[in-house]
Amino acid sequence: MSGIETVKVIxxxxxxxxxxxxxxxxxxxxxxxxxxxxxxxxRQQMLAEAKKQADDITARxxxxxxxxxxxxxxxxxxxxxxxxxxxxxxxxxxVEKLLSLVTRVE
Amino acid sequence: xxxxxKFTEDILRSAREKAETIIREAQTETQHASDEAxxxxxxxxxxxxxxxHADADAIKRRQxxxxxxxxxxxxxxxxxxxxxxxxxxxRKRTSQLAADEARYTxxxxxxxxxxxxxxxxxxxxxxxxxxxxxxxSSLTQKVGKSLGSVRVEWSKEPIQxxxxxxxxxxxxxxxIDNTLDQKFEALEPKLLIEARASLFSE
Lengths: 106, 202
Prior knowledge:
The complex is a heterodimer of chains A (106) and B (202). Chain A is mainly alpha-helical. Chain A is 95% helix and 0% strand. Chain A has one helix at residues 3-103. The radius of gyration of chain A is 44 Å and the shape is rod-shaped. With 202 residues, chain B is an alpha+beta fold. Chain B is 72% helix and 10% strand. In chain B, strands 2-1-3-4 form a four-stranded mixed β-sheet. Classes of the chains: A mainly alpha (106), B alpha+beta (202). The interface between A and B is large, with 68 and 78 residues.
């Protein structure tokens, strides 16, 4: 092999080596890009699931709260009716009592 | 020849190793980044759910609190309505007192006499409503028995009142308002308290 041929073989090898590294760089960039995209996708999916779970939790709480509030108001309305009924039976006595205060001679 | 082959082989092996390192590093790095991202997303998702639980508690508390408030307001309105009705009845009964002469006359006499005593003047003017003015003569006999030397004059102008009297100095500068209206008004805060206690206590 002549000197020129030797140099040519070495230059070819260098070119091949440079290509190998270049390809590796390209692949590593592709790997990074893939993972970025995958992470982004995963993020959106997990957050969407969490958001749905959150919506379910608040919707359930709202429904439960409404039921509890209705029950509370129902019981309170019954208690108020009893209170009004009891007050009605005391009206005459109360009028007399207040009238005695107004007419009391000191 | 052999040396050249060895040399080129070295170049290629070195390049292969470097390429493998580049890819391995990229894989390690991305795996690490992926793990970190996953942990971060998990944390973020957990926070979303945790916040939802807190929101849920707040929603329930608010709904119950609003219900309590509505209930309290309704109860208050109903009680106020009943108390107002009672006060109206008492006011009406007070205005009808004058019809019960046996009960009213001693009371009117007392209101006039206490007014005279409170005023502390030697001559006083008594102001009463139209109905009482019409029976002034019988009142005149009753009033003043215990007043000693106080001279009592009766105003001929009737006042607008349910009953009772205004006792004033002759020039009208000092007035003691002993009308039933004034008494009712002065007692109203107490009447409200008494009415509530009487109607709504356990």
